[in-house]
Amino acid sequence: MRGPVAPSCAARATGLRWPLHRASAALGGGVIQGTASEAVLVVLLAARDRALRKHGKTSLDKLVVYASDQTHSALQKACQIAGILPENMRVVMADCDRNYAVAPEAVSKAISTDLPSGLIPFFVCATVGTTSSAAVDPLPELGQIAKAHNMWFHIDAAYAGSSCICPEYRHHLDGVEEADSFNMNAHKWFLTNFDCSLLWVKDRSYLIQSLSTNPEFLKNKVVTPRNFSLVCFRLLPPPSDEDNGHKLNYDLMDSANSSGKIFISHTVLSGKLVLRFVVGAPLTEEHHIIAAWKLLQDEATKLLGRWRLSAWPAIQRTAFTETGQQNGIK
User: Fold this and answer.
1) Are 8 and 30 in contact (CB under 8 A)?
2) Which residues form a coiled coil (predicted)?
3) % of the chain at pLDDT higher than 70
4) Which CATH class is domain 5-211?
5) Which of 13, 156, 159, 319 gives the lowest tally of CB atoms within 10 Å of its CB?
6) What are the extents of the domains in the chain?
C-alpha cells in the first residue's frame, strides 16, 4: 500500500493530507478498491480483528458498530460478512435540524447505554455526502468520540469526497485527521471508469494483519523456463549467505519498484527467491527494455557495493532467449 501513485495524487488534489504527512508516511497509505462497499468491508474487517486481538477472539458477539440511519447499506452488509451480530449494529437517527446529519450526542448516548452491558464499541462510521440528502456528518466531534473509546473511525465520502478537489468544498473534510480510514469514489466526479474507489488508512498494518496471506503461489504464478515474455533472474548471493540471497534479491526488487520506473515481482523456485520481469504491454519497445535493464544493473551495483560483493557474478538468469541461447549478463 505504501506510496501508490494514484491515491497519493488524489489525496493531494483534494487536500486530504493526513495519510501523506510525515508523521504517518511510514504507517499509512492508499489503495484502490473496486467499490466503496469493498472499502467499507476491508476497514471493518481490520477494525474487527484489531478489537479481537485486544479483547480476545471470544468477544466477537460483544462488538458493536455505530452509524446513522442515513449511512449507506454497504455498512450493514459488511457487518453481516464480518460476523457482527445484527443486534449489535446501532442505527442512530439522524437530526433533521442538521440536514439529516447524525448528532454526536446521540452517538455518545448510544455508546454510554451499551458499555454497562459489557458490550464493546469498536467502530463508528461517518458520511460525507449521504445518499438521501447529501448530509455531512460532524467529523471532528465523531472523531473525538471514537478516540475516547478507542474505536475505529471511518469516513465514507464515496459521493462527495471528490468534490473537495475544489478548495471551496474542502471545509467538509475538517476533522478528517481524526479518522483511521477514509474512502471516496473516483468513478463519480473524477471522470474515471467504474470500479475505482480510493481508500486511505492511517495505519496499514491493521489491513495487512487481517487480509494478507503468505504462500508464494498466491502472489505470483510460477512460470519457468521462459516460454513467452517472462524472464526469471536472481542476484547471486555469497556462499556464506545464510538466507541464500533472499534478502538480497528482495532488496533489489524493492529498490527497483521504488524508483517508480518499472515494476517487477517475485516467486520462489526450489526454495530460492527469484525475480520476475515480464513484458506484456503492447506499446513496449526495445528502448524500454534497455532502460529497465540499465535500472536493474544500477540498483544491483548499489546493493553489491553495500554488501561488498562487487567481485561476484552479477545476475543469474533462469530463462533463455527465443534462439535457445542463455542470456548473458555483462
Assistant:
1) yes
2) none
3) 83
4) alpha beta
5) 13
6) 5-211, 216-317
